[in-house]
Design a protein that fits this description.
The protein has helices at about 15-35, 65-70, 85-90, 120-130, 155-160, 180-185, 215-230, 265-270, 285-295, 320-325, 340-345, 350-355, 370-380; strands at about 5-10, 40-50, 50-55, 105-110, 130-140, 165-170, 205-210, 240-250, 250-255, 305-310, 330-335, 355-360. The chain has about 375 residues and is α/β, with parallel strands linked by helices. It binds 2-acetamido-2-deoxy-beta-D-glucopyranose. InterPro entries: ECM_Assembly_Org, VWF_A, vWFA_dom_sf.
Length: about 375
């Protein structure tokens, strides 16, 4: 269960001393049940309404220490304002605070009754930055109380799916203990923590790199820099974006597979050390090869993106292989110098003008890095999330 797990605990006056204590006991039981450790879950706590970090993610590396820190937490008072979600989004899950990157970010909001402010926007922003939000509502509104809500259906507005996975209503404070196991089970189900996808953390990206003789050693190095510069923009890990690469001439070579390098430094190093091959140009066969060697091993919850980089006309047909992959892959084509415009359009997913780029010389490739990232993110954000 490797997650970065933050609890937002309710410190409002309305909750009272006794129930605040029950909340602390609940958190201590979660810390025990989840087995905090650097190779597994790390756990932190924020108290709201005025958000205060009680426990940083990186401070304690075992359950015993977390539990004794929980024991020392003092109730701060205030309202039940969940605007603290802005705080976790901007401050809490920062690398300096112990965010590991390779572990999904999970925030569990504990609410006594219902929030005294609106949660929708703060939750959406947090989700868009990749945080998985769970709501545990204790003694939530009954039918008569629903008219008092600041925001109707606040839980549904806060979580990513309304199928119940991300929400745990608890009937009374005395029943809270029973929520420990179900909650731990869910926050550890990392395959289902896929709602909080962003354009930077949710892809399997395959670079299909032309290594033909016309490129030449110096320009090939520029192409690798281009590949590295695009890669650098993404969040890289086994649960975030993964990158694979194929180099081709007449033949094809798998340089590295998805998930072979699971952190950015190793991945950039691997890109840098791709050896220039030199030979012919069979772009069609290379696309088919990328589908077989890379995309067949892609995870179902990843967005599949192929970026083909070529400087010449292909010796084989690109149209049929490209059509075959378009069913599951978003294809970008980057043509340089002698690349054939008609082929670049066949390779690219429609609309071509958003997925196909041409540069007259290798030295101008760098200009397209921000454009490509922008287009990948824009396309991602324009599609329904749930
Ligand atoms: C890659 O990024 C470096 C550093 O920003 C820049 O100097 C270089 O021109 C870029 N090259 C390409 C091909 O994108």
């Amino acid at each position: 269960c490797k997650v970065d797990l933050a609890f937002l605990m309710d410190g409002s006056w309305s909750i009272g001393k006794r129930r605040f204590k029950i909340q602390k006991e609940f958190l201590a039981e979660v810390a025990q049940a989840i087995s905090v450790g650097v190779a597994g879950p790390m756990m932190g706590i924020i108290q709201y309404d005025d958000p205060v970090t009680e426990i940083n993610l990186k401070t304690y590396s075992n359950s015993r220490e977390v539990k004794s820190a929980i024991d020392k937490i003092v109730q701060k008072g205030g309202l039940s304002n969940v605007k603290a979600l802005y705080y976790i989004n901007k401050h809490y899950f920062s690398d300096a605070n112990g965010n590991r990157g390779g572990a999904p970010n999970v925030a569990v909001v504990l609410v006594d009754g219902w929030p005294t402010d609106k949660v929708e926007e703060a939750s959406r922003l947090a989700r868009e930055s990749g945080i998985n939000i769970f709501f545990v509502t204790i003694e939530g509104p009954d039918d008569n109380e629903k008219q008092n809500l600041v925001e109707a259906n606040f839980v549904d507005k806060a979580v990513c799916r309304t199928n119940g996975f991300f929400s745990l209503p608890v009937a009374s404070w005395f029943a809270l203990r029973k929520a420990v196991q179900p909650l731990v089970k869910r926050v550890c189900d990392t395959d289902r923590l896929v709602c909080s996808k962003t354009c930077l953390n949710a892809n399997d990206i395959a670079f299909v790199i032309d290594g033909s003789s016309s490129v030449g050693t110096g320009n090939f190095r520029t192409v690798l820099q281009f590949v590295a510069n695009i890669t650098r923009e993404f969040e890289i890990s086994d649960t975030d974006t993964r990158v694979g690469a194929v180099q081709y001439t007449y033949e094809q070579r798998l340089e590295f597979a998805f998930g072979q390098y699971n952190n950015k430094a190793e991945l950039l190093n691997a890109i840098k050390h791709i050896n220039y091959w030199s030979g012919g140009t069979s772009t069609g066969a290379a696309i088919t090869y990328a589908a077989e060697q890379l995309f067949s091993k892609s995870k179902p919850n990843k967005r599949k993106i192929m970026i083909v980089i070529t400087d010449g006309r292909s010796y084989d047909d690109v149209r049929a292989p490209a059509l075959a992959v378009h069913r599951q892959v978003i294809a970008y084509s980057i043509g340089i110098a002698w690349a054939a415009p008609d082929e670049l359009e066949y390779i690219a997913t429609d609309p071509d003008k958003e997925h196909s780029f041409f540069v007259d010389e290798f030295d101008n490739l760098y200009k397209f890095v921000p454009k490509i990232i922008h287009n990948i993110c824009q396309e991602f954000n324009s599609q329904p999330r749930n």
